[in-house]
């Protein structure tokens, strides 16, 4: 099957790029241009015609990438035409008339690249992350992963486990032979090293996921404290409805921001108070759930009413900033008890001290987004496989200690498998190769 799709963004543009991949690609170029494909990887100007009527669609550049030296590993071409909707539609319509040629599914070109061994699963994910990146730190992270740092590290750990497994398999296959002491020491030391390394990777404060998904800030507090006004100020637009009527915000309202290059998702939540209104109660429940998920909580209160409910007091932990709004209405200083808390006294109405609040938010962001070359996890999928790998390694060590090698080997296989799943590689035959390389069996 040959696939095609618009690879540049939809909408009017100077240039549109249509990508084609599959065994019929060369034939399709001949159908469209009346000529054989041009020299590989050399942009060539051609007239592009409708396949059945030979009516001219446009004049554009053809780039020919014969497989396997292409992005997908198959014969592939890119057609660059003028970026009008009518040109793209006409070209798509002609391509759809070719037998065994269809519109590509989302991500199918990259999926083919993975299936044909051009890239691993982590690189495929990083390509998607690079395309979706909105801030500089997201772009930098995606590029780092694309360059293979994570893959190299996971493959290195996997190879160490395969080496251990080959020794254990040898012990199972030749139970009467005692493993040399240096081999037993290597099994012990290598498994310990892998466990320590995985624990270190997992202990990353989820920075990779925060960068990829966005740093979550929840604006919380009682009704009419100015939460929606603060949301609108940070967003520099009217995202939330502002009203003097208590309980205006019933649902969670989100906006995506770029603060000093850091991706941020700000959520305005329903005011927290005792309510008999079923809809409002559901909104308050959502507010508390969003508070649990947030990386930073902005607890907004009215300067004239600084008495906390038990719920609000429970929100003021190390990941919270107390925002005391309407300071212009204060007739006396705030209490010493409030002063001890991590707080900022602001007035959104008079634009007072808001820059101080934003500075506190930025400092919190920088502390959470500590740049480290050790950040290898960018998705929950990676984290789950690493945790499963760690669990099986711990089980392996327990069974190995009592010399239950059969069951220990199974845990080791599963641990290796979970590491392989991260990069999209699971090959049991590698274990046999390792056995023959390290043991002169039959000699």
Short précis:
The protein is built from 16 helices and twelve strands. It is of the alpha/beta class and 443 residues long. Strand 1 and strand 2 form a beta hairpin.
Summarize the topology.
Elements: E1 2-6, E2 13-21, H1 25-33, E3 44-49, E4 56-65, E5 76-83, H2 85-96, E6 101-103, H3 108-115, H4 121-132, H5 136-146, H6 149-173, H7 181-202, H8 207-213, E7 215-220, H9 227-235, E8 253-259, E9 262-268, H10 278-293, E10 296-302, H11 310-315, E11 320-325, H12 336-339, E12 343-345, H13 354-368, H14 380-401, H15 405-423, H16 429-438
Parallel strand pairs: 1-6, 7-9, 7-10, 10-11, 11-12
Antiparallel strand pairs: 1-2, 2-5, 3-4, 4-5, 8-9
Describe what you observe in this structure.
There is one protein chain. The chain has 443 residues and is an alpha/beta fold. The protein has 3 domains: 2-115, Gyrase A, domain 2 (2-Layer Sandwich); 149-204 and 376-438, Up-down Bundle (Four Helix Bundle (Hemerythrin (Met), subunit A)); 211-363, 3-Layer(aba) Sandwich (Rossmann fold). Residues 241-250 and 428-443 have low confidence and may be disordered. Helix 4 (121-132) runs antiparallel to helix 5, helix 6 (149-173) packs antiparallel against helix 7 and helix 7 runs antiparallel to helix 14 (380-401). The two termini are 50 Å apart. A hairpin with a 6-residue loop joins strand 1 and strand 2. The chain has a 6-stranded mixed beta sheet with strand order 3-4-5-2-1-6. A 6-stranded mixed beta sheet has the order 8-9-7-10-11-12, sandwiched between helices. The chain is flat. It is built from 16 helices and 12 strands.
């Amino acid at each position: 099957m040959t696939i095609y799709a618009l690879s540049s963004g939809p909408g009017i543009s100077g240039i549109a790029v249509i990508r084609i991949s599959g065994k019929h690609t060369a034939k399709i170029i001949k159908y469209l241009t009346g000529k054989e494909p041009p020299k590989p990887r050399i942009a060539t100007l051609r007239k592009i015609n409708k396949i059945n009527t030979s009516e001219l669609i446009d004049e554009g550049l053809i780039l020919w990438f014969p497989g396997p030296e292409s992005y997908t590993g198959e014969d592939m071409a890119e057609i660059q035409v003028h970026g009008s909707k009518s040109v793209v539609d006409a070209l798509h319509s002609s391509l759809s008339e070719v037998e065994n040629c269809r519109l590509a599914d989302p991500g199918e070109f990259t999926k083919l690249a993975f299936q044909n061994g051009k890239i691993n699963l982590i690189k495929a994910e990083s390509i998607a992350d690079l395309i979706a990146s909105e801030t500089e730190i997201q772009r930098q992270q995606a590029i780092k992963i694309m360059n293979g740092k994570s893959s190299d590290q996971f493959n290195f750990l996997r190879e160490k486990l395969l080496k251990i497994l080959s020794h254990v398999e040898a012990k199972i296959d030749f139970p009467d032979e005692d493993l040399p002491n240096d081999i037993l020491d290597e099994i012990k030391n290598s498994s310990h090293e892998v466990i320590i390394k995985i624990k270190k990777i997992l202990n990353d404060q989820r920075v990779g996921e925060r960068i990829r998904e966005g740093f979550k800030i929840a604006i919380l507090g009682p009704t009419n404290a100015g939460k929606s006004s603060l949301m609108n100020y940070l967003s520099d637009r009217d995202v939330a409805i502002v009203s003097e009527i208590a309980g205006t915000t019933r649902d969670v309202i989100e906006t995506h921001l770029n603060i000093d290059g850091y991706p941020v998702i700000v959520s305005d939540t329903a005011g927290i108070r005792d309510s008999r209104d079923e809809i409002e109660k559901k909104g308050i429940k959502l507010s508390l759930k969003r508070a649990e998920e947030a990386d930073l909580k902005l607890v907004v209160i009215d300067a004239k009413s600084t008495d906390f409910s038990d719920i609000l007091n429970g929100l003021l932990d190390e990941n919270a900033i107390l925002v005391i709004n309407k300071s212009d209405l204060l007739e006396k200083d705030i209490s010493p008890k409030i002063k001890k808390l991590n707080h900022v006294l602001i007035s959104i109405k008079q634009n007072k001290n808001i820059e101080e609040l934003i500075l506190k938010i930025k400092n919190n962001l920088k502390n959470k987004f500590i740049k480290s070359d050790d950040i290898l996890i960018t998705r929950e999928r990676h984290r789950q496989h690493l945790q499963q790998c760690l669990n099986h390694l711990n089980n392996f060590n327990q069974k190995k200690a009592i010399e239950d090698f059969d069951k220990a080997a199974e845990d080791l296989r599963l641990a290796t498998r979970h590491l392989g799943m991260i990069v999209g590689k699971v090959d049991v035959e590698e274990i046999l190769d390792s056995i023959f390389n390290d043991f002169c069996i039959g000699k």
